[in-house]
Write a structure and sequence with these properties.
The protein is mainly α and 131 residues long. Helices cover 91% and strands 0% of the residues. The chain has 4 helices and no strands. It has helices at 2-30, 33-62, 67-96, 100-129. The longest helix has 30 residues, at 33-62. It starts with a helix and ends with a helix.
């Protein structure tokens, strides 16, 4: 169970880092803004489902052996539900309404949540690695 938790958490960590610092950055550098924005908007729900699935599975696998790690993964699950169901629609609505100031604030919150998720997954990885 611990090896499976390690692998799933590593997948979560790597997937989030790749999406946040690789895919999103690449899309905005390779495509015009009017194309990149809608593409990212369509990709985010899938990204959040990936995060939810990995974090839920890791939380279940960790529940018997590492309550802190399971708790961190559960916090990632709960905050991802908020980000996907509430924050993302609010960001999209602000974009559609041309509310740049509101978009910047909400997007900043989204970035902070993603960075916290990456940090949380890193903590769990270090714990699982026994470092």
């Amino acid at each position: 169970m611990e090896i499976a938790a390690l692998l799933i958490t590593a997948l979560l960590f790597g997937g989030m880092v790749l999406y946040a610092f690789g895919f999103a950055a690449f899309v905005f550098s390779a495509l015009p803004g009017e194309t990149a924005g809608p593409l990212i908007r369509k990709a985010f729900p899938h990204f959040y489902l990936f995060v939810l699935a990995c974090a839920m599975l890791a939380a279940v696998l960790l529940a018997l052996n590492d309550l802190l790690g399971a708790g961190i993964m559960a916090a990632i699950v709960l905050s991802t539900i908020y980000a996907r169901q509430i924050l993302m629609p609010a960001i999209n609505a602000a974009t559609d309404a041309g509310e740049k100031r509101r978009f910047k604030w909400l997007h900043g919150l989204s970035v902070a949540i993603t960075l916290a998720h990456i940090g949380g997954a890193a903590v769990v990885l270090v714990r699982l690695a026994g470092a």
